[in-house]
Amino acid sequence: MHKLGVIVPYRNREKQLKLFLKEIKDYLDKSLEYEYCIIVVDQIDKKKFNRGKLLNIGFLEAIKRGCDYVVFHDVDMLPVECDYTYSDKPLQLANHFISDGDFNRSIQRNYFGGVTLFSVKDFQLINGYSNRYKGWGFEDDDLLLRCRELNLNLENESYRTVNIDKRAMYFSGKKSFIKIENKYRTVRPYSYLVTFFPDVIDCDPSEITDEFAIFGIPGHDLNLSFNSFSRYKFELFLKDNTPVSITSDFIPNLPLQVSININPKLNRAQYFINGKEVGTKYWGNRALRLYEEEPYLYLGVADPTRNKKQKYFKGYISNFGIINGELSLEEIRKLFMSDPNKPLNETNDFIKDRWYAYFDSINFSKLKNKLIDTSGGCNDGEIHNVSTKYLTTSKVSRLKFPYRRKGVYKLLKHSEGGYVDGYWKDWSSRENQLRYYRLTNSGSSNYSKDGLSTCKYRSNIKIQEDNYIKIDALT
Q1: Between the CA of residue 51 and those of 18, 101, 142, what are the distances in Å?
Q2: pLDDT-based confidence at residue 238 (cuts at 50, 70, 90)
Q3: Could you give the number of structural domains in the chain?
Q4: Is 300 within 8 Å of 176 (Cβ atoms)?
Q5: CA angle 28, 32, 37 (to 5 degrees)
Q6: Domain range for residue 108?
Q7: 375-404 pLDDT, tens per residue?
Q8: Same domain as 41, residue 94
Q9: Last residue of a domain, which of 344, 362, 396?
Q10: Which of the two residues, 107 and 203, has the higher pLDDT score?
Q11: Between 51-64 and 139-149, two packed helices, what is the crossing angle to 10 degrees?
């Protein structure tokens, strides 16, 4: 017979805690046949809230009470329809939400927070959470990193990607771009197509956040970019400077082919990644900004001439094209399924005569310092600190994510942390992000030197009654 420890990190939410304890006890008493205990760890010092360390403290207390598995549980999530029974693999349980008024939450595929379940054995194997993420965020990203590194039982998810096997243009992320004269009219329907593979994300500690442009037209930028949350955005502006943007959900670091339709007649933009639609946006009767007034279009950056937020890209670009008229969904899928190692303007007859511009890494000439336009438009790109490197990718990429056991939870309203309305609510969250990417890029989570084995704290039991323990903790 198993014993469950429900561990709750807590500070200064008395009303929510009172409601949570009532709801969780009622739910477990009705649905769970095992013995359980609820351990609330209250951080009573004035340091930044340290969710990971509080959960480590609660886990160490759960072991003392004979628990063989644990659920790490945020206090603002009330169980509605969920399963707290034992599992021999890590599970993410909170993935469907009932909002509290206008307060809601959306989650990405890599989300490993909220309510998660671990066997004691697995959690000890990864040495628990890191103790070093202070303030809001990234301790759960670090947890997934540890699970991957220690080969815990995670779900293999397959992604159909672009199968590249050739030399591709490599952009270093610093003063590295290709400059192309912007001769292309934007008053009639047209499409962009680009195939690329980002390198590891290098965050800039001096910036608020990080954004990297695969291509762009400056001014009020028209650009395709991604950020350090691994979300991909296409954005343009109207004449009145209103932005029109479409942003993807979380996408792992994979080879991607992006197609974008822009229709000034229908006032519509459509955005596709790897043959699938990401989203569509309309802008009503307002006029689109005349981007042909800008002299240059760039690959690998949004605008290299400005002092800040140039958005330099680090990674590979295999090809880039501009097409007369919108691409149909069938045409987008055909382009995605075609051989990316051959020039797309030569191997796809259905759009052969529609290219305004086509640039392929095959036609990269370092001797002439040019990227050759093979569309017939004779608008060669000017190379700046770009090289070519051999790139090999597979048709299918497999990545590991937490298994999800469906769980429906009612959300209790609270102030959001992290990145809100274009700024970090607390700079410690940005420091957490920088720390996480340093570990990711190093290839090691540093789990053996940071976790349960190094969790130093002082505590005393404030309340102990039946199956409920409340601990005051100094971190």
Answers
A1: 19, 26, 12
A2: very high
A3: 2
A4: yes
A5: 60
A6: 3-154+402-474
A7: 988 899 999 999 999 999 998 888 999 999
A8: yes
A9: 396
A10: 203
A11: 60
